[in-house]
Amino acid sequence: MIEKIYKKVSEFERISSDEGIKLLKEGDFLTLGKLANRIRFKKHPKKLVTFILDTNVNYTNVCYVGCSFCAFYRKPHDNEAYTLSISELISEIEEAQSKGITTALIQGGLNPELPYEYYLKLVKELSKSTVHVHAFSPPEIDLMCRISGKTTDDVFEDLKDAGLTTMPGGGAEILSERVRKKISPKKISTDRWLEIMEKAHEHGIKTTATMMFGHLETKEDIIEHLDRVRELQDKTDGFTAFIAWDFKKENNELGKIVNRIVTGIDYLKIVAIARIYLDNFDNIQASWASQGKDVGELALHFGANDMGSMLIEENVMREAGFRAQASVEEIASVIRKAGFKPALRTTDYKIIKYL
Ligand code: SF4
User: Fold this and answer.
1) Atom of ligand 1 nearest to the CA of 70
2) SS3 of residue 106 by DSSP
3) Bridge partners, residue 243, by sequence
């Protein structure tokens, strides 16, 4: 049966969730890479790999949700708790802009003390500058609905009026209620995450979709996640890219009970399966910041066509004991070494310049 699935994939046919599970469980590592690459080159025939130069600013680390995998959040009265004022946030971004960033990825903890106007002002003020504002994942949008008493549609209208055009796909982790109940019981449900993404797309706000794996999920949960985002993409075509990263164990509760180690091979398999299963996604990112540059380089031969962010600042993974750093030239040379031409891009995948 596995040969039949390989054939189906090589003929660019969509596979079912049962076939996805079988591929993930029994698929030969190199065959998966080859099939994923075949699809990648059908969608992107040029030997080009893009990436973006951005900064990740976390406006607050105060969060009442307390996900078990999160090393970043603090309780309101914790000594290390912080919330940036709008002017502090702008000056951080201006500093990053002076280093060449084009996009500010802005996310924060779920801090119920922040007024609704804070979010609107943040987008409005930043939209006056030349930086692209890529802000707020679905759990933050849900919080905005609750503090303002507004509907999701109204919140998106307000954010759009303020200047928001794209959103990151955070807060998805694994879109399976079985897993969410264990790792983040207080976070929004799978259905709500998808509902918010659907509304964003309806309002013309493009988003990414993400997945964090390598903790309590099964292979069936991974395919359920991919299936839910594929289904929504069929409906809205609003996802620009899919990004998977592996769970980091340090400084968090979940890390104490998870014994698995995600290897480079595990990661590459996920990249390949994502490329194969998500036949309606144009872009699959290699999250070099999560797995390191070497695995990132290999991911370009497992279906990925984009190296993601060259982050100036990344707090969330750093708190969990993982710090990845690279310069633009280093990432460009990783791409060249893998046999591709590097190019800097915008958030909506337009080329800024070839390197
Ligand atoms: S992952 Fe987000 S929602 Fe969960 S505890 Fe951390 S900051 Fe809060």
Assistant:
1) 6
2) strand
3) 210
Return the percent helix, strand and coil in the chain, to nearest 5.
45, 15, 35
As a whole number of angstroms, the distance between CA 291 and CA 286 comes to 9
Tell me, in angstroms, the distance from the centre of ligand 1 to residue 207's CA. Answer: 19
Which ligand 1 atom is nearest residue 108's CA? 7
Q: What does the CA dihedral 73, 79, 85, 90 come to, rounded to 10 degrees? A: -70
Amino acid at 299: A
pLDDT in tens, 257-302: 999 999 999 999 999 999 999 999 999 999 887 788 899 999 999 9
Please determine, for residue 323, whether its predicted confidence score (pLDDT) is greater than 80.
no
Check pocket membership of 109 for ligand 1, CB cut-off 6 A.
Answer: yes
**Mutation pick for ligand 1 pocket among 110, 144, 179, 210 (CB with most ligand atoms within 8 Å):** 110
Residue 65 and residue 137 in contact, taking contact as beta carbons nearer than 8 Å: no
Instruction: Look at residues 204, 83, 199 and name the one whose alpha carbon lies nearest to residue 150.
Output: 199
Q: CA distances (Å), 103 to each of 130, 166, 351, in order?
A: 9, 11, 14
State the CATH class of domain 14-354. Answer: alpha beta
In this structure, what token pair is assigned to residue 71?
A: 């090393």
DSSP-derived pairing of the beta strands 341-345 and 351-354: antiparallel
Q: How far is 114 from 184, CA to CA, in rounded Å?
A: 22
What are the boundaries of each domain within the chain? Answer: 14-354
0.70 surpassed by pTM: yes
Name, in order, each residue with C-beta under 8 angstroms of 45's C-beta and a sequence gap of 6 or more. Answer: none
Question: Beta strands of the chain (E only): which ranges?
Answer: 48-58, 103-107, 132-135, 166-167, 206-213, 239-246, 283-284, 306-311, 341-345, 351-354
